[in-house]
Amino acid sequence: MRVLVVGGAGYIGSIAVKKLIENGNNVVVLDALYTGHQKAVDPQAKFYQGDIENKFLVSQILRNEKIDAVMHFAAYSLVPESVKKPLKYYDNNVAGMISLLEAMNDVGVKYLVFSSSAATYGIPKKLPITEDSPLDPINPYGDTKVMMEKIMHWADKADGIKSIALRYFNVAGAASDGSIGEDHAPETHLIPNILKSALSGDGKFTIFGNDYDTKDGTNVRDYVQIEDLIDAHLLALDYLMKTKKSDVFNLGTAHGYSNLEILAAARKVTGIDIPYTMGPRRGGDPDSLVADSTKARTILHWQPKHESAEEVMTSAWKWHQSHPNGYEDK
Ligand code: UFG
User: Fold this and answer.
1) Can you give the pLDDT at residue 186?
2) Is the pTM of the predicted complex or chain greater than 0.90?
3) Is the pLDDT of residue 329 over 80?
4) Catalytic center residues
5) pLDDT in tens, 13-55
6) Ligand 1, atom 33, residue with closest C-alpha
7) For residue range 188-201, what is the model confidence (pLDDT) as tens digits?
């Protein structure tokens, strides 16, 4: 199959590119390199630098490269940044989705696998969260993902573009060979921040709040290892092409770890007694997010291989140890 990966130079997209190629697909990447790294893109993929909102360019790539299906990872994804800069998020994420679907429609490409998010649920009424839980985001980032899913829904009704939205919980870890991993500037995510602090010994790691309604007062999240997450994308793409049916699936392990438990796992895996400061809450964080991923396991036959925080941490640690300055080190 010929697959266009939009956002294929990012943390998640670049691992999708690698796995799609390993599975015998021809892969074309479009990435603006705003946050991605060209060094993360498998050299066997054909690379175009450009913006998803450049409809002319996207249409040209879809047509000239004879694309069968698209995977869309090209969205801004930082919850705290979205609270501070909502317009940036609505512009890139929502307008980007419209532009992509218009280009797909113009050229007649009918299949899309999309990175959605657990941030669509907001503060869940019950845990674990099933796909039919109400969508009620509490930050602009999550709201853009709800809007993008709605746009996909209506593009299916009107234009027959079939899509699968994968609602990620907290994606973490790295390629198991340590070659591809998380490199954001600035880094805001929990696991990279803990491991960077472990490496530098700067003692600057802060936990944002211990007054949440959780087992130890710190936020609880469901960490899904990145290679497991991408396995689900490949299964979703196969399912989409076979059934020609739009759908939505949660991707999480169904295990919830508090921020303090994640720190404990990091201390165990690294063997370093990483110090921390307990700070105030950060804006836009729900108390707990834990997936019910029964639907993906049953329908897509997805089976995450890394179920514990320590397993996720091990691959992340391999990446950070070998790339203390991210892709600059390569
Ligand atoms: N945290 C800290 N210290 C840090 C960084 C994070 O305490 O230095 C805390 C956060 O406050 C939160 C938890 O660690 O409680 C996880 O935060 P992340 O920034 O790693 O991840 P988020 O839960 O904010 O968001 C991630 C993705 C989103 C996605 C969401 C869904 O970045 O795209 O998971 O659960 F929507």
Assistant:
1) 86
2) yes
3) no
4) 141
5) 999 999 999 999 999 999 999 999 999 999 999 999 999 999 9
6) 77
7) 999 999 999 999 99
HEC per residue, the chain? CEEEEECCCCHHHHHHHHHHHHCCCEEEEEECCCCCCHHHCCCCCEEEECCCCCHHHHHHHHHHCCCCEEEECCCCCCHHHHHHCHHHHHHHHHHHHHHHHHHHHHHCCCEEEEEEEHHHCCCCCCCCECCCCCCCCCCHHHHHHHHHHHHHHHHHHHHCCEEEEEEECEEECCCCCCCCCCCCCCCCCHHHHHHHHHHHCCCCCEEECCCCCCCCCCCEECEEEHHHHHHHHHHHHHHHHHHCCCEEEEECCCCCEEHHHHHHHHHHHHCCCCCCEEECCCCCCCCECCECCHHHHHHCCCCCCCCCHHHHHHHHHHHHHHCCCHHHHC
Pocket of ligand 1 (CB under 6 A): 77, 79, 117-119, 169-170, 188-190, 193, 206-208, 219, 221, 259, 282, 285, 289
The burial of 245, by beta-carbon neighbours within 10 Å (0-12 exposed, 13-18 middle, 19 or more buried), is given as: exposed
Q: How far is the CA of 191 from the centre of ligand 1 (A)?
A: 9
pLDDT for residue 281: 95
Q: Are 163 and 101 in contact, with CB atoms under 8 Å apart?
A: no
Q: How far is the CA of 190 from the centre of ligand 1 (A)?
A: 6
Q: Whose CA is nearest to atom 9 of ligand 1?
A: 190
CA distance 227 to 234: 11
> Which comes out higher in pLDDT, residue 328 or 108?
108
Q: Could you give the percent of the chain with pLDDT greater than 90? A: 91
pLDDT of residue 151: 98
